[in-house]
Design goal:
This protein is of the alpha+beta class. The chain has four helices and five strands.
């Protein structure tokens, strides 16, 4: 039995996906993908599965996601699933399909929230002064 471990990151979210031979079942944090809420996150996670449906029917995928918000977790899970499918299939056409659709399926988006600075309420906002 062939099994592949893949990771995906987005902001503070980290996803680990295990791709194995199977019958097309997908679980996110022990919950079936069909029951995963909110719907927008579910649609985001299912993108790599819809791009290669014949491959998705031959594997079982289990994803464990932690940290971040629900959309950051969805992006991280999506990247982990896509990387796992590429590595499991060992087919350069699958990687090329993902790359043409959206490069962040393969490569994680490295953008992060900018840290807060002193003398202000946020990263860029500063306390305003009035001299008159």
């Amino acid at each position: 039995m062939k099994a592949v471990l893949a990771t995906g990151r987005r902001k503070a979210a980290l996803a680990r996906a295990i791709v194995r031979d199977g019958s097309g079942r997908v679980f996110i944090n022990r919950r079936a993908l069909d029951a995963y809420e909110p719907e927008l996150a579910r649609l985001k996670i299912s993108e790599p599965l819809q791009l290669v449906p014949e491959l998705a029917k031959r594997v079982d995928i289990r994803v464990d996601v932690e940290g971040g918000g629900f959309m950051g977790q969805a992006d991280a899970a999506r990247t982990a699933i896509a990387r796992g499918l590429v590595e499991w299939s060992e087919d350069p056409k699958v990687r090329e399909t993902f790359k043409q659709y959206d490069w962040t399926l393969i490569k994680s988006d490295v953008r992060f929230k900018e840290p807060k600075k002193p003398c202000g309420r946020g990263a860029r906002a500063k306390v305003q002064k009035s001299y008159r």
